[in-house]
Amino acid sequence: MTELNTSHGKPRAVVLFSGGLDSTTLLALALHDGYEVYALSFRYGQRHAWELKAAETIARQMGVAGRRVFEIDLRAFGGSALTDNIPVPKGRDASTMTREIPVTYVPARNTVFLALALAWAETLSASDIFIGVNALDYSGYPDCRPEFIEAFQHMADLATRAGVEGRQKLQIHTPLIHLHKSEIIRKGMDLGVDYSKTVSCYDPVPEGLACGECDACVLRLQGFAENGMRDPAPYVSRQKVEGSNQ
């Protein structure tokens, strides 16, 4: 674990932190709410690691108490455009994205991530876990729904020694779950989040620039446009991106 600047007297929280737009907003919210934050990122076999580089930079700048990158290889199971040799969908509009579970869904990813966050929270004596799931954008992802979070919460109540012994009541927080992308961005801007360093793209070029055409880019660009703002993140072709979102 990378230790940064621990502040005493605050409740501890584990924040699932990818370095993307949503999880950076989530991190800012947890800090704003007075938590001593421990950021948990994953190298899970994703086809690019730009988000992890972004997560390291942002975590340091925002002053988390500690950060850990957990290694787990979900490529062993395949089945996702994020981990397998499957093309990432490009050029889809937002309405098309919600019609079926997209190929960018990684099987059981949030179940695995939350289980590992639960383990770290117990060892940290942290009673709070934050995850940036969203049921409005990407509503096709089954592990982003309120029903999934409620079920995992019930499991977490039964799963830890600290919980059974009554020393810890763990709470899973999902403050972004009912917000549209534009609302998430607005909330982050109010908290002073610098979105220029966040990475959301599913298929960035080798230099790290966002493609501007995958589902994540489309929804992100739409969110900024609805706020009357220009996305500060770097894209392959700014002219192409802005022209397609006018």
Q: Summarize this, please?
A:
This protein has 246 residues and is of the alpha/beta class. It has helices at residues 21-32, 50-62, 94-97, 109-124, 146-159, 161-164, 181-190, 215-226, 238-244; strands spanning 2-3, 12-16, 36-43, 66-71, 128-130, 171-173.
Features:
9 helices; globular; disordered N terminus; Rossmann fold; alpha/beta; six-stranded mixed sheet; 246 residues
Please tell me about this protein's structure.
With 246 residues, the chain is α/β, with parallel strands linked by helices. The chain has one domain (11-201): Rossmann fold, CATH 3.40.50.620. It is built from nine helices and six strands; from the N terminus they run E-E-H-E-H-E-H-H-E-H-H-E-H-H-H. It has a six-stranded mixed beta sheet with strand order 1-4-3-2-5-6, with helices on both faces. Helix 1 (21-32) packs across helix 7 (181-190) and helix 7 crosses helix 8 (215-226). The protein is globular, with a radius of gyration of 18 Å.
Query: Whole-Å distance between the termini?
Result: 44 Å
Q: What fold name goes in the CATH topology slot?
A: Rossmann fold
Under the CATH scheme, the architecture is: 3-Layer(aba) Sandwich
Rounded to an integer in angstroms, the radius of gyration calculated over CA atoms is: 18 Å
So what's the overall shape? globular
Number of discrete domains: 1
CATH class: Alpha Beta
Total strand segments? 6
Q: List SSEs in N-to-C order.
A: EEHEHEHHEHHEHHH
Structural class: alpha/beta
Give a quick account of the main beta sheet: strands, pairing sense, barrel closure: 6 strands, mixed
- What is the name of the CATH superfamily? HUPs
- How would you write the strand order of the largest sheet? 1-4-3-2-5-6
Level of helix content? Answer: 25-40%
Number of helices: 9
Give the uncertain stretches in residue-range form.
1-7
What would the average pLDDT be, to the nearest integer? 90
